[in-house]
Specification:
The complex is a heterodimer. Chain A is mostly helical. Chain A contains nine helices and no strands. The chains are: A mainly alpha, B alpha+beta. At the A-B interface, α1, α2, α3, α6 and α7 of A face α1, α3, α4 and α8 of B.
């Protein structure tokens, strides 16, 4: 891929990279540093980039993810207790069906606040998967590549994250007298 | 009905993936069949899609947009990494935020009064400053800062000075941070892969009342830069901290060798920059006099080492 085209594509993703950096670092200063480090590394390694369907975004996210976890010194690939339990947990959760109630009944201003808080409170590995999926629009395979985990791990983390958020919104609905019982 | 219908367990497993458009054609058909058989499954799919939209809406707020200065800085990094690109992106330093170095400011009346019992060290510092003033003045006179550093970079210098000096843990620790200032030039040499530190005979500001705290790598002012943090020593009469960035001179920064250029961050921190012997130095402080003295002293130390 032409260097000029790569740089144009990469620069077009600045908002997305910063947004994800903010979600990871949780403060603007650290996010700014992270974004710059990501771009410096991306420019250095642009020769190794191969353009795929998802464009340059998943690749930048992968650099961002690795930079963040390198900086904070977290062992990103070491399985957590939650990860170890996740497959079984998801299997057992499948005994209860996914929720079927209509979110459109909710007051969206309240949903935004409640949901934002709930997302920010999610365990880190659930939150990152959820954000890459919901906000950045990545496919499961791309998320697995960004995080360096198996596709099934992405699916189980996402399943759990969605279940937590649905429960939170169900509570909000209950507080406002909105019936969510499934028929 | 398809050859093999899904179990309820499979339906539950695949509904979210169906809602996300992640299933292959065969599984899609099976899920569609289940949705046709049970309208609740359709609502479940709708719920997942609504949830995704709601998450995106909740997390795509203006506070998550990339700030314009950061965008400009990244754009300049991209330009900088292109061989035929200009050294730095506009807008650049203007007369409004440029503060020309004036020799008279180096001998500000208030400085000695604050030094107190650090007087012997201060005398040595003043001698060094005098030597430096002699060095700078004949060659270039009073230098007005020209096109040297962008507003965005000034803003970044100020922000990182504030952030890293108040919390040393924010420094990126990609290099070992020596506890002894004497080892610092060698550490920086190792990182840059050169031997300029042999000329940088001292990065020590203790004679001015600022002690070396820590060093880290930094992406400002460009790739492969280091950020050294100094803090006012207790009972030195000094306050605040000093940040010194050092990077190899790529020849792109239009700084005249032997000239001390000064500028200011948007929040009012003094910025001093100079280049010598293959390296470019950017110093940011909290107090103007202290920053100027520190810059003069560092530059003179390098001179003395030649």
């Amino acid at each position: 891929m032409q260097s000029e085209a790569f740089r144009e594509l990469a620069l077009a993703e600045m908002d997305a990279v910063y947004r994800m950096a903010m979600h990871l670092a949780r403060n603007p200063n650290d996010a700014s540093d992270l974004v710059q480090e990501t771009y410096l590394k991306a420019l250095k390694a642009e020769g190794r980039f191969e353009l795929r369907d998802g464009g340059v975004r998943p690749w930048l996210f992968k650099i961002l993810h690795n930079s963040f976890y390198t900086q904070v010194g977290k062992a990103k690939r070491e399985p957590t207790i939650a990860d170890d339990l996740a497959p079984q947990s998801v299997e057992s959760e499948l005994d209860s069906p996914p929720p079927a109630w209509d979110l459109e009944h909710l007051d969206w201003e309240q949903v935004d606040d409640r949901l934002k808080h709930a997302i920010e409170s999610l365990p880190e590995h659930y939150r990152e998967v959820l954000l890459l999926w919901a906000v950045e629009g990545l496919k499961y395979r791309e998320i697995a590549d960004v995080l360096g985990v198996a596709l099934g791990t992405v699916m189980s983390r996402l399943y759990r994250a969605r279940a937590i958020l649905s429960t939170e919104l169900a509570e909000l609905a209950g507080e406002h007298g909105i019936a969510i019982a499934e028929t | 009905m398809s050859k093999e219908s899904m179990s309820q367990h499979e339906v539950r497993k695949y509904l979210p993936a169906f809602a996300d458009g992640e299933l292959d054609v065969e599984l899609n058909l099976k899920v569609l069949e289940q949705m046709a058989m049970d309208p609740t499954n359709t609502r479940r799919v709708m719920h997942q899609q609504q949830l995704r939209k709601a998450c995106a809406a909740a997390m795509c707020k203006p506070e998550y947009c990339c700030p314009a200065p950061l965008k400009a800085n990244i754009a300049s990094l991209v330009c900088e990494s292109t061989d035929d690109a200009p050294p730095l992106a506009a807008p650049l330093l203007t007369d409004d935020n440029a503060l020309p170095y004036r020799k008279s400011q180096a001998a500000h009346d208030g400085v000695l009064a604050r030094i107190g019992h650090w007087a012997p060290a201060a005398v040595a510092a003043v001698l060094l400053i005098g030597a430096l003033a002699v060095f700078f003045t004949p060659r270039t006179g009073i230098e007005t800062a020209g096109v040297l550093v962008s507003d965005q970079q000034l803003e970044l210098f100020g922000r990182r000075h504030s952030t890293c000096s108040s919390d040393l843990g924010k420094l990126v620790s990609n290099i070992p941070s020596p506890t002894n200032i004497a080892a610092l030039p060698g550490t920086i040499d190792d990182y840059f892969g050169d031997t300029a530190g042999q000329i940088d005979s001292a990065l020590d500001l203790s004679v001015l009342g600022y002690t070396y705290e820590q060093v880290g790598t930094c992406s400002v002012p460009g790739r492969r830069s280091v950020h050294v943090v100094y803090k006012a020593a207790p009972d030195s009469g000094r306050t605040g901290s000093i940040s010194l960035w050092i990077k190899p001179d790529t020849g792109k920064a239009p700084i005249t060798p032997g000239v001390l250029h000064t500028a200011e961050t948007p929040s009012g921190n003094p910025v001093l920059l100079w280049k010598r012997d293959g390296r470019v130095y950017y110093l940011v402080g909290d107090a103007r006099d202290d920053a100027q003295q520190a810059a003069q002293m560092l530059a003179s130390s390098q001179l003395a080492g030649q």
